[in-house]
Amino acid sequence: MRPPQTVAVLGAGSWGTTFAKIAADSGDSRGVQVRVWARRPEAAEEINATRRNSRYLGDIQLPANLQATDDVAEALNGAQLVVLAVPAQTLRAQLREFKSLVPKDAIILSLMKGLEVGTDARMSQVIAEELEWPQDRIAVLSGPNLAMEIAREEPTASVVACSSIETAGWIASACTTPYFRPYTNTDVIGTEIGGIVKNVIALAVGICEGKQMGDNTKASVMTRGLAETTRLAVALGGKSETLFGLSGMGDLIATCSSSLSRNHTAGRLLAQGLTLDEVTGKMQQTAEGIKSAQAVLDRAIQLGVYMPITENVVAVLQGVISVDELGPRLLARELKAEGVHAP
Ligand SMILES: NC(=O)C1=CN([C@@H]2O[C@H](COP(=O)(O)OP(=O)(O)OC[C@H]3O[C@@H](n4cnc5c(N)ncnc54)[C@H](OP(=O)(O)O)[C@@H]3O)[C@@H](O)[C@H]2O)C=CC1
Ligand SMILES: O=C(CO)COP(=O)(O)O
Fold first, then answer.
1. Can you tell me which residues bind substrate (predicted)?
2. Which one in 10, 111, 186, 296 has a CA-CA gap of 20 to 30 Å to 138?
3. Structural domain range at position 281
4. Could you report the per-residue pLDDT of 241-252, keeping only the tens digit for each?
5. How far, in Å, is the centroid of ligand 1 from the Cα of 16?
6. Do 323 and 193 lie in a common domain?
7. Are 57 and 14 in contact (CB under 8 A)?
8. Segment 126-144, tens digit of pLDDT
């Protein structure tokens, strides 16, 4: 199957715009056109007039075969690949609005790393439900993908997951550049869960950092965070090996180590004494872990999966415990064997 000639990206934030650049750079020699939908007309105008999206990507220059529009019908018209990059909690409402405009033969790619509050649904499930799309035409992309680093063309790998390996390969061929290398797999559940839960773990690591704790502490939280992420993914039907790859361990390392991460930043700010409202007000960008944490915990409780770090991050976010109580509560638990699946 020839790679797509027309790509629509819905969402002109940091990752949507950066992925649009990847697709445009990847397809430039094949005459590919990428259209990005921005909900604010001034954001679309700025991209078209200056080749920049300054609010999210500073001075990064966007390629000429990337155009922006505030008209979602124009963005979706004739698109063979439709990429979704809006905040997870807004996806369902937006799909309801745009459904009739999505070309019936399009392949859908989710870039989002959140779990829907209320339904605990993954983004690929929300897409399947709302668009009534077959699984083999819905894919997800996830990995250690801090948008700003990729926008600066710093080499990065990622994973495209789809039940159809052919679909995953088709998407990978549409987003391969000298600075971006997508791998493929068929474990959509494991790939999505890795991206969702690492945001919650990054909140915990950010809190440790904000409290001036050292690298041993952060490595301990990351490693045990990966263990609880893996337990949840496997209980949902994902594969543990996926969690030890780019979309699990890779993304966990990137997000928990980087000051570019919004989730990590949110944790640091909480540790510095800001309230949750102050943190979200200050950041003005999507930190999915803040809302997804409760949905992750709800899912874990339904499935009988033990997720102590997530449980305590939720308690901090809800104001049930203070940031200072997070560490002592985790350390005071009963001793146990180390394995990922140990009870
Ligand atoms: N940034 C990154 O490094 C990465 C992000 N992701 C994931 O990608 C997804 C999108 O994140 P990202 O691009 O970073 O987010 P940003 O916060 O950078 O941008 C969000 C985008 O969605 C728009 N938006 C915000 N609120 C709404 C709403 N209520 N309805 C419709 N559109 C809205 C914003 O428009 P406006 O500008 O008008 O507010 C903006 O275009 C998230 O799930 C995130 O976890 C995944 C990998 C890397
Ligand atoms: O998903 C990301 C990196 O892979 C981005 O993380 P943040 O949303 O925390 O910035």
1. 113, 262-263
2. 296
3. 189-331
4. 999 999 999 999
5. 7
6. yes
7. yes
8. 999 999 999 999 999 999 9
